[in-house]
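Follow-up to my post from last week.
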Amino acid sequence: MPETTPAPCAPEDVRRIACIGAGVIGGGWVAHFLARGYGVTAWDPAADAEEKLRRLVAAAWPALEQTGLAEGASPDRLTLAPTLAGAVADADFVQESAPENLELKRSLLAELAAATRPGVVIASSTSGYPMTDMQTAVEGPGRLVVGHPFNPPYLIPLVEVVGGERTDRDAVAWASRFYDLAGKSVITMDRELPGFIANRLQEALWREALHMVANGEASVGDIDASITEGPGLRWAFMGPCLTFALAGGEGGMAHMLDHFGPSLKSPWTRLAAPELDRELRDAMVDGCAEAADGRTYADLVAERDQGVIDVLRATGRLGSTRR
Amino acid sequence: MPETTPAPCAPEDVRRIACIGAGVIGGGWVAHFLARGYGVTAWDPAADAEEKLRRLVAAAWPALEQTGLAEGASPDRLTLAPTLAGAVADADFVQESAPENLELKRSLLAELAAATRPGVVIASSTSGYPMTDMQTAVEGPGRLVVGHPFNPPYLIPLVEVVGGERTDRDAVAWASRFYDLAGKSVITMDRELPGFIANRLQEALWREALHMVANGEASVGDIDASITEGPGLRWAFMGPCLTFALAGGEGGMAHMLDHFGPSLKSPWTRLAAPELDRELRDAMVDGCAEAADGRTYADLVAERDQGVIDVLRATGRLGSTRR
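User reply:
Got it. Predicted complex:
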């Protein structure tokens, strides 16, 4: 990746953010940035965009008050701009959340780059397009990154940050640092992967769910309950790798893979399994050891158990068998 | 399925449970049943089984005290039997949790059925084998069911109940009713599906995770963080279908499928996508409407937001960006 033009301000000095597109995701970003004390200028071509956006922010605000507002945070610091150029004119950062359409994103990002002050980082909320494919029509594509959030962006911490082939390395670092300061939990990826990380994982699950419904094997209700009453309780605080490591008992991921590895070849799911060769096995085992970071099996079990109890209690399910 | 011989006692009258196999899952069942006030007799051929099992129960007990113990519940109501036949002799219900090996399960279930009083229901914890494939060697296979738990069985509510081709319909109903009384959240399946429901879903995700690690696309730590900081927070209380319905905004699942449906064909995950035809689309939309059960989009958004806040607070992540 090429080196960069310096951004016009440090991530610490961002004051005004332009949010382009004010649907579910764009509007969620608006609510998040407002709650974190930024001034926000939004633009959306829809006729009823302002009304819908202010309704979304108002609906989210009580939740945001619970999470703790930044000093000076207020829904009143939202301005709707009549034009795209007006929205980005004085922005220190731009978050684009247009509909998921590659051609639309390409031309919109080109238009944004032309209207935004030199060096200001422009992030796309795309849920899957690689930036390399979106930055093709942009003059000065170095400051374009993906900043992929999860719904609702004002509550779910994760944002995946990755650049395209023509993105400056510094722009990726700037965006990661900015999101971190803005209260997000950042995963910075060093290579492009369609769907990034979390969406690939949840898409795999989602496709299997669609197959089951298509074949009459399970209802939507059963699918949802199988997650919320089962693995979903653990995944709120312990990821699938470390969770499965615990399924190996005191033998951890190594025992888990050696014991359940052959099941990978079972006709579970329509997804072809990768070859569980020595290299992959060791990568999983080492990765889990690193994730455990010195915690013993007993430590992790105690932590998981307390986590499940806390989540059950928090979601009103302690003492009853169903929510 | 054939009709049945009546069980020797109603699900309400179960007093003593035999747990066969005392590893991570079998031991977890022991802890669960003890906490619910049952007497438990365990059997496991391993030399150090008793020591390990009592350690597991002791480690789980503080967590179980927090969830609320049944009257008279005590770790002292656990007995280790020297023989399999001795373990099941006076059992009102049998939970088999042997290693995941089809031949082993076949012969063990045959042995169990021969030693257990007529009509007593025998459930297998298998994480994926259909009962039809396991009950081949059993005399009187009508009382054999799958009762598939999640780790740890003493905290994760879900149990998936399903019979094989030779299982009596009444045995399935008996087991579902019993698990419900024993504090589990039951999904009763009316057809066999290798991996049942939740395991198929989490296996799809797991295989995609293994592909990513195998190809150097993401680290174990990134994969885990992408779930716990992202979709996992929602899945603790709202399943993937209803969660995705909210991604469609006020247009719900219908808008979501119409908008993101084409993305199914994107090269996300290695799992081939099903054809999103009218029938599947309508099944998803109708299923979500049923799951919403009269709650409006605004109701569901408020519920989700409160849920995420509660889960973040419960897992110590409110007010900080990382755990």
